[in-house]
Amino acid sequence: MDSVRQTAGSGSPLEAEIGFSRAIRKGAHVAVAGTAPIGDDGRTVGKGDVYAQTVRCLDIAVVALKAVGATPGDVVRTRIMLTNVTRWKDAARAHGERFATVRPACTFVEVSRFIDADWLVEIELDAVVD
Asked: What is the domain class of 5-128 according to CATH?
């Protein structure tokens, strides 16, 4: 029997424009798409501040997790993409505050840029719901 596919959006206009879901759950597996530091007003949160942007990305991602029945405790992998990997400690601090007891597999990657030049960080999550 096939598992039900659940999707959730965050309200970002990019979701409709590009044609993707913020989060998708199929069975026990949950994938949260690359999440950027976009505020409710559509503007970049924390311009120039990797820590603030990481917090915002994680806040959006956690809401998406919950929308498909997962929690931060279900997260098994995070991918943190930065435009300047030498600032990884700022992102790591925010990640550690959120996942210190969960301790998912975590990868930091440097990218040349994102869709919006003000974005310094984007985060993907994978979770498995028991």
From this structure: alpha beta
**CA 72, CA 39: separation in Å to the nearest integer?**
21
- Model-wide pTM > 0.90: yes
Domain locations along the chain: 5-128
> Are the CB atoms for 59 and 89 separated by under 8 Å?
no
What is the spatial distance between Cα 123 and Cα 102, in angstroms, rounded to a whole number?
Answer: 16
Assign 128 to helix, strand or coil: strand
Is 126 exposed, middle or buried, given 0-12, 13-18 or 19+ CB atoms closer than 10 A?
Answer: middle
Paired strand residues for 80: 108, 123
What integer pLDDT is reported at residue 1 of this predicted model?
Answer: 47
